[in-house]
Amino acid sequence: MAKCLRSIKNQTYKNIETIVVDRFSKDKTVEIAKSYGAKVFVTNARERSVQKNFGVKQSIGKYAYIVDSDFIVEPEVIEEAVKKCENENYDAICIHNTSDPTISFWSKVKKLERDCYKDDELNVAARFFRKEVFGAIGGFNESLVAGEDYDLHNRLLEKGFRIGRIKAQEIHIGEPKTIWEIARKHYYYGKTIGEFIKKNPRRGMKQLSPIRPAFIRHWKKFVRHPILSLGFIIYQFVRYFSAGLGFLESVTRGRKEMHTPFYSQGIVTLTFDDCYEETINNVISILSKYKMKATFYFPTSFIGKKFEGRKLVSENGIKKLVKKGHEIASHSHSHIPVSITLLDNIHRFMISFLGSESENKLNFLRRSIKFFFKKNQMKNVEQYINDILKSKTTIEKRYRVNCVSFAFPDGVYNNKVLNILQRLGFTSARTSDIGYNHFKKLKPYALKVQSWDKCTTPEMAEKWVKKAYRKKLWLIEVFHLVGRENNDNYEYFTSIYHFKKHIEFLNKMKTRGLWILPQKEVMEIFSEISGKKEVVVSPASKLVRK
Ligand SMILES: [Zn+2]
């Protein structure tokens, strides 16, 4: 680590920012990194592809160069790479990596192999990128634990980006010392080989082949070093055998169970119900300051009007939210909840009673009794659907956004309306059931929440977040009124100071790998990872109703 950072400090090109992404190392990584003037981020993300994407996202420069901590970089690497991109208009640069042969017999073998790839077009991966290009292709594929660099390189080629090469090189000092290390490492890699081949069928197969054109081109090297060549054969055998074992295990046990990058960290979604003007005015700058995007639901018939005694957000307020990149979602048109049976009510109560932290249990009980006696409920399901569709169409036409998330008015639902939302073009729906969402048994149309009311303190909310982080859950927080003072003792009031404090806490957790995303983005990632593509998103106007 220190050697690596020293070699970066000694670059002939000086205008660089160094970012270290650490996963709770027990050694002195953080201190060492700081002593070299690097910015340090600690994350609980296990896979290096996730860590690398995260690191690139934090950087501010025009280019990003990704170095593993067990590499030493020759002094001219960055200078040559920048020149090549600036003068010859390349989008990415390959830097040849060789091995330090003094580490072990196996590192000599690795050097023999790596040096065959020096001019190879196949076994090569760019490490230096124009940042916009890196972003344009979506960075590393986070479902891969190995081959993510080849995969990215292959995608760069596919999209027609220009990849150049430079003379200066990297030296790998972390080569394995024993044959067991090699076996263990490749066994682990083998588990996602299937994923890699699925994504890179042609080029990927060639890149994984044990006999490669590069070796044949360099046959003289092998003849000159018979003992190393023998070592190379053993090395290849161990490598493919253990990767094969890993692959077999992943097939028999099911890849998803084994490798679930999506679950490797908790996710928090910040949501705002009803969207009072006061709330929007108070939260928008705080969210911008910490670059957090949230989901806002409002009943479209009340835009700019009074709703339950308070002024709702105006047209301009909504446009401002759209411009800032927040998600605009449906909360129906009239905000009249669907009527539910006593049984539905009990069911709903049970879920929430089990899901809520002990301090919230009484509160919830009071609220659900209150709801039970609420008069204005929609009995006709057809009418209820029309009401939802009206809001979706309004939002999509007026603000030119896709409206794919929904929040049930008063958070209540029954089975009939649950089943219909997907057909209406929504990817998910939020209830007011209390609890956390588990990705392994996600119910996209009955998402659970933790709701802020006048009794909620930042300390209580921190507990929710910590639980989601620790157990890799999806926490959806619901705010209603965020204001300075609670003059009329409103039930769902959050003080702006508490809100600020909580956002600051979330920001701290963000640097430790917690994701903070709007509802629809979580669903996009979820459907991509779980391979569930049945959710089709289309503008409401084109939908055919039953
Ligand atoms: Zn509401």
Write the layout of secondary structure elements.
Blueprint: H1 2-9, E1 19-22, H2 29-35, E2 39-42, H3 48-58, E3 63-65, E4 71-73, H4 77-88, E5 92-94, E6 97-99, H5 105-116, E7 126-130, H6 131-136, H7 148-158, E8 163-165, E9 170-172, H8 179-190, H9 193-199, H10 201-208, H11 213-217, H12 219-224, H13 226-253, H14 255-258, E10 267-272, H15 277-289, E11 295-298, E12 306-307, E13 310-311, H16 315-323, E14 327-330, H17 342-355, H18 361-372, H19 381-399, E15 405-407, H20 415-420, E16 428-434, E17 447-451, H21 458-471, E18 474-479, E19 481-483, E20 493-495, H22 496-510, E21 515-516, H23 519-530
Parallel strand pairs: 1-2, 5-8, 6-9, 10-11, 10-18, 10-21, 11-14, 15-16, 16-17, 17-18, 19-20
Antiparallel strand pairs: 3-7, 4-9, 5-7, 12-13
The structure holds zinc ion.
Residues 273-274, 331, 335, 409 line the site of zinc ion.
Describe the fold and architecture.
The chain has 23 helices and 21 strands. With 546 residues, the protein is α/β, with parallel strands linked by helices. It has two domains: 2-261 and 531-545, Alpha-Beta Complex (Spore Coat Polysaccharide Biosynthesis Protein SpsA, Chain A); 266-513, TIM Barrel. The strands form six sheets. Strands 10, 11, 14, 15, 16, 17, 18 and 21 form an eight-stranded parallel beta sheet that branches. A four-stranded mixed beta sheet has the order 3-7-5-8, with helices on both faces. A three-stranded mixed beta sheet has the order 4-9-6. Strand 17, helix 21 and strand 18 form a beta-alpha-beta unit. Helix 5 crosses helix 13 and helix 9 packs across helix 10. The chain binds zinc ion. Zinc ion (ZN) binds at residues 273-274, 331, 335, 409.
